[in-house]
């Protein structure tokens, strides 16, 4: 069965499940209990398949799909608001978890984390609550996502109205992925740009026994800055912090209080030096691999570009908070579905199961 067919059938199966429905129906369980023109599953499929055409045209198109009496746009809007946005969040997460993910780097999945800001509809209610400044009249949302770079798929995302703390959202995602049965036992390397590194985030990764590569700024840690000023290219340093330092850096006092951190100096095309920190061993991952892993992080930037300019994540259909969150997770779902379609267009290309000892540079192009 092709990947996109499995993708659609998984959504249909989940949306038809009674337990799934009862978990995600708003205002009690009675809304979809009685016989209605629109079932819970119908509304899910309508929301995912919405092409952002005028509402009445969407309603006419969907009525033909149901081969039933004509359904009004107002009825569809009302039905959508009876479903929590968490239904679409779970559909996004579960379809991402079960999608084929054959491409790895030295046997590891590469997960990049980054944030994205976008604009919400300019309604008085949203403007009053979610404008960044008093002078700004455009309400915003802030999302932080985890992206499987080599398989080009979003696997987790946290959506926040207004401006958020990216590190806090990233920390919550790390917890969620590390505890998820689909991901917790697989080899992973997490990649972060220089806006994310902190002692608390490193502590979180170490507690979950996850590998990472981070680009750090000149204001990160005094031990790393000492390396930056030295002539070393690849060196392991020791980090240890007192109770006072832990408090200042929001680190759990009962957590890991000391660890070794590998610092790697890489040269940019501009001639400037950048410092990457990691807990990957030098024997298994020499400097060139660390540089390549970080270079591959650019895939999440490309993913955000497509999400904004091809999937049109900021072209919201709804104007309520629940509906806006629905629209956001539907956009991620559509992005991943498109990735499945593109992957299944080349069925004769062999799967890359045996890439555990090969660099990404050795893999055949897609």
UniProtKB/TrEMBL annotation:
Residues annotated as domain Transposase IS4-like: 110-337
Domain of life: Bacteria
UniProt keyword list: DNA recombination, DNA-binding, Transposition
A biological-process GO annotation: DNA transposition
GO function term, MF aspect, one: transposase activity
Pfam short name (any one): DDE_Tnp_1
PANTHER family (UniProt xref): TRANSPOSASE INSL FOR INSERTION SEQUENCE ELEMENT IS186A-RELATED (PTHR33258)
Family: Belongs to the transposase 11 family.
UniProt name for this protein: Transposase, IS4 family
UniProt source species: Ruminococcus callidus ATCC 27760
Classification of source organism: Bacteria, Bacillati, Bacillota, Clostridia, Eubacteriales
């Amino acid at each position: 069965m092709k990947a996109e067919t499995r993708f659609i059938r998984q959504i249909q199966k989940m949306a038809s499940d009674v337990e799934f429905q009862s978990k995600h129906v708003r205002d009690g369980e009675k809304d979809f209990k009685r016989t209605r023109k629109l079932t819970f599953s119908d509304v899910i499929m309508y929301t995912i398949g919405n092409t952002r055409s005028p509402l009445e045209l969407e309603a006419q198109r969907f009525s033909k799909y149901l081969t039933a009496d004509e359904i009004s746009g107002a009825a569809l809007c009302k039905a959508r608001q009876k479903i929590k946005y968490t239904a679409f969040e779970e559909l996004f997460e579960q379809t991402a978890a079960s999608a084929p993910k054959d491409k790895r780097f030295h046997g590891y999945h590469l997960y990049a984390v980054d944030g994205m800001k976008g604009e919400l509809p300019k309604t008085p209610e949203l403007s009053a609550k979610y404008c960044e400044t008093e002078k700004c009249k455009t309400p915003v949302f802030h999302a932080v996502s985890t992206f499987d770079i080599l398989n080009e798929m979003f696997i987790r995302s946290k959506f926040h109205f207004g401006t958020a703390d990216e590190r806090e959202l990233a920390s919550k995602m790390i917890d969620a992925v590390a505890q998820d049965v689909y991901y917790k036992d697989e080899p992973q390397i997490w990649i972060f740009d220089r806006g994310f590194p902190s002692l608390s985030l490193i502590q979180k990764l170490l507690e979950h026994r996850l590998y990472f590569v981070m680009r750090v700024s000149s204001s990160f840690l005094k031990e790393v800055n000492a390396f930056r000023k030295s002539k070393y290219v690849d060196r392991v340093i020791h980090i240890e912090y007192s109770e006072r330092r832990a408090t200042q850096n929001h680190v759990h006092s009962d957590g890991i209080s000391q660890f070794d951190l590998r610092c790697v100096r890489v040269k940019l095309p501009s001639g400037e030096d950048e410092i990457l920190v990691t807990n990957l061993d030098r024997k298994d991952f020499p400097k060139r691999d660390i540089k390549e892993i970080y270079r591959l992080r650019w895939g999440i930037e490309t993913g955000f570009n497509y999400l904004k300019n091809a999937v049109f994540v900021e072209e919201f259909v709804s104007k309520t908070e629940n509906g806006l969150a629905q629209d956001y997770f539907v956009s991620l779902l559509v992005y991943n579905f498109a990735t499945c379609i593109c992957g299944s267009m080349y069925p004769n290309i062999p799967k890359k199961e045996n890439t555990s000892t090969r660099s990404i540079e050795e893999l055949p192009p897609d």
